[in-house]
Amino acid sequence: MKLLKKIASVIFIIGKVLVKFLMFIAVMLVGAYFLAPLGKINSKDIDMSLFSNTPNDAMMMFFQHEMFSGYLFAVTIAFILFVAYLFWQIHEVAVHKAQEQKSTQIQLVFALSLCGLFLHKAWWVVAIIIAFANWSHITDSIARIIRNGLSDFSAARRSEDVKATANN
User: Is pLDDT above 70 for 161?
Assistant: First the structure.
């Protein structure tokens, strides 16, 4: 029964990927159809005998078709949007890390990330440091330093009091 579930799960995942791929291709072709009028080819009347290395006539017909130009335009737009999405994901890595750790500084990290986006990148670096820092370890270390400092201070004060009473 577990084997059948696993096989069905794998088939479902493959089907989902294929559907997404076909939807992407359909969107790209529709985009190419609508963007084709923007891809006017200006070099259709060039005499190809002037060039030493030219593709065959069938390839030139393909390259000079407005639909191909529209498809290239759609691919370029899709690529630019994908790169912008990746940059946004990299920019939001601090916020995602803070949410993953259920940190109390989520709002601070988000505000610093926005400051890093619009004002200066140093704020983004501060947000990364805050998001990835182990705050429980830092607070324990600071508390231990303060505790040890106070105990050392009180021990030094007691020894001064002992010396002062011995001198009197």
Answer: no
How many Cβ atoms from other residues are within 10 Å of residue 166's Cβ? 7
Other CB atoms within 10 A of residue 92 CB: 16
CB 95 within 8 A of CB 113: yes
For the chain, what is the largest distance between any 2 Cα atoms, rounded to a whole number of angstroms? Answer: 114
Which tokens in the block code for residue 65?
């078709």
Q: How far apart are CA 89 and CA 85, in angstroms?
A: 6
pLDDT 10s digits, 115-137: 887 888 788 888 888 887 777 78
To which H or E segment does residue 123 belong? helix 121-132
Q: Token pair for residue 96?
A: 């995602």
Q: What kind and span of H or E run contains 159? A: helix 135-167
- Higher pLDDT: 39 or 11? It is 11
